[in-house]
């Protein structure tokens, strides 16, 4: 081997050692950086015309486990999905109220029953009759409050859908740009690992919104697909379309066309289908809240309101056929107009002094022209019986078994509570799974001790190659001195 070849070999060794030192120093400097993938330098022997020609740098690569990352992203999507549903159900449970809590739906119904019992013991007492009126009005207000809160939750879900869609579109566009930059860097032989870290971090962010899988393409670029098969990015970024609304009322549904669905590149996605292309992340759960769970909760609340109205409009309680103590905005209830009834509950004007009525009609009958016998508590007792009587609900998702109004309200809350507990269990499981996978990922993180050992080897290699060059220089000086 000539001195020139030896010199070339040593120079390539110095270059490789310098690059290795750069990689090691970068790893050590970023040992605490979130999302940083440990770099490794890959080398190979170089030959020229069949002869050894030193060392060749193949490139700088990231230490990652693609399968592990994919599993962690799916777990993140499951966590995002369960968290949205758990939070909504918890909020719904709170607005209905635990039976023991003051101001809960059950407590308001119980307060009405208590007021009726007290009034029936002293039907001549105007203050006690006024207490019945107040308690009955509190019941109507509670129904309205719960209904308003349900619609506000749907509104919040709609707004969050819009925000997540905007974030998805922006992120996919940026990932496309990063793909282009990575392609350019890789094609020109430059290090693109920093850009790849940025891309991985952005993909991680959208993975919680829509469960996805990453597919490697040429020159370190990637394509993205949802686990349901929709193309998010393959060369060019996809674009989601969604139109939010400024307000939501119970009658506004996806089926009626009053609320927007979602499309990808102009193709509609059926979010109500069990296996749709975006199912599994937080975005899908927001649609489930807005279009399914909250709609069912409103329907059940209206069913309870209907049950209340029909109990007090029964001829045994009110023989006027005017609609009973509880009305639909002052009119008799029409079973064909049950939707949003809970928002329209109102007391009969005939018993409400604020509407020109008289409170003694609670005792003497809603249609009474003049005050009757002050000691007659029969109609008040009939109202108590109406609340307590086991009556099967005519609508809603409840079982058809007969029960009291308070029991029906308790069943409504219980159903929400069971769903909430199930979703909280899902959150706990998904969080544990995500944490475990993240811990496994950290095994691929920077090991500072190992990097320091590598640095010692790099130092020795650099010194050895420098020594070779020094020796060659001395040999050349010796030759020049002859």
From TrEMBL:
Its main location: other. Residues 100-313 form the Flagellar hook-associated protein FlgK helical domain. Keywords: Bacterial flagellum, Cell projection, Cilium, Flagellum, Secreted. The keyword Endoplasmic reticulum does not apply. Residues 445-479 form the Flagellar basal-body/hook protein C-terminal domain. Residues 9-36 form the Flagellar basal body rod protein N-terminal domain. GO terms for biological process: bacterial-type flagellum assembly. It is found in: Bacterial flagellum basal body; Secreted. NCBIfam families: flgK_ends. This is Flagellar hook-associated protein 1.
């Amino acid at each position: 081997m000539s001195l020139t070849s030896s010199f070339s070999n040593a120079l390539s060794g110095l270059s490789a050692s310098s690059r290795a030192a750069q990689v090691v120093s970068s790893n050590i400097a970023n040992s605490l950086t979130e999302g940083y993938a440990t770099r490794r330098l890959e080398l190979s022997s170089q030959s020229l015309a069949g002869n050894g020609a030193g060392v060749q740098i193949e490139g700088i690569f990231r230490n990652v486990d693609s399968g592990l990352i994919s599993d962690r992203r799916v777990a993140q999507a499951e966590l995002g999905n369960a968290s949205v549903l758990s939070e909504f159900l918890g909020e719904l449970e709170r607005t209905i109220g635990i039976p023991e809590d003051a101001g809960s739906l059950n407590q308001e119904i119980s307060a009405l029953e208590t007021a009726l019992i007290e009034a029936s013991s002293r039907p001549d007492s105007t203050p006690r009759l006024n207490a019945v009126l107040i308690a009955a009005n509190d019941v109507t207000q509670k129904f309205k409050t719960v209904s308003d809160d349900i619609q506000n939750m749907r509104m919040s879900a709609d707004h969050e859908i819009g925000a997540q869609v905007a974030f998805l579109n922006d992120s996919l566009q940026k990932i496309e740009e990063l793909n282009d930059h990575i392609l350019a860097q890789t094609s020109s032989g430059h290090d693109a690992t920093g850009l790849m870290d940025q891309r991985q971090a952005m993909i991680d962010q959208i993975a919680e919104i829509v469960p996805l899988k990453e597919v490697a393409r040429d020159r370190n670029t990637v394509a993205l697909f949802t686990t349901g098969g929709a193309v998010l990015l393959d060369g060019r970024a996809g674009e989601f379309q969604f139109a939010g609304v400024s307000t939501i009322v119970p009658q506004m549904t996806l089926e009626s066309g009053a609320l927007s669905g979602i499309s990808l590149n102009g193709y509609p996605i059926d979010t109500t289908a069990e296996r749709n292309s975006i199912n599994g992340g937080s975005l899908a759960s927001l649609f489930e809240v807005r279009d399914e769970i909250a709609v069912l909760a409103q329907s059940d609340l209206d069913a309870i309101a209907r049950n209340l109205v029909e109990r007090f409009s029964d001829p045994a309680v009110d023989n006027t056929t005017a609609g009973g103590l509880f009305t639909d905005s002052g009119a008799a209830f029409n079973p064909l107009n049950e939707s949003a009834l809970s928002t329209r509950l109102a007391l009969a004007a005939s018993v409400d002094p604020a509407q020109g009525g008289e409170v003694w009609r609670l005792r003497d009958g809603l249609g009474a022209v003049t005050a009757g016998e002050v000691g007659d508590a029969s109609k008040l007792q009939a109202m108590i019986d109406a609340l307590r009587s086991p009556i099967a609900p005519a609508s809603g998702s409840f079982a058809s078994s007969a029960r009291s109004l308070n029991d029906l309200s308790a069943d409504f809350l219980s159903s929400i509570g069971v769903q909430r507990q199930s979703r909280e269990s899902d959150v706990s499981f998904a969080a544990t799974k995500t944490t475990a996978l993240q811990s496994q990922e950290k095994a691929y993180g920077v090991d500072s001790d190992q990097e320091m050992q590598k640095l010692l080897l790099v130092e020795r290699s650099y010194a050895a190659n420098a020594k070779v060059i020094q020796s060659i220089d001395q040999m050349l000086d010796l030759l020049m001195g002859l």
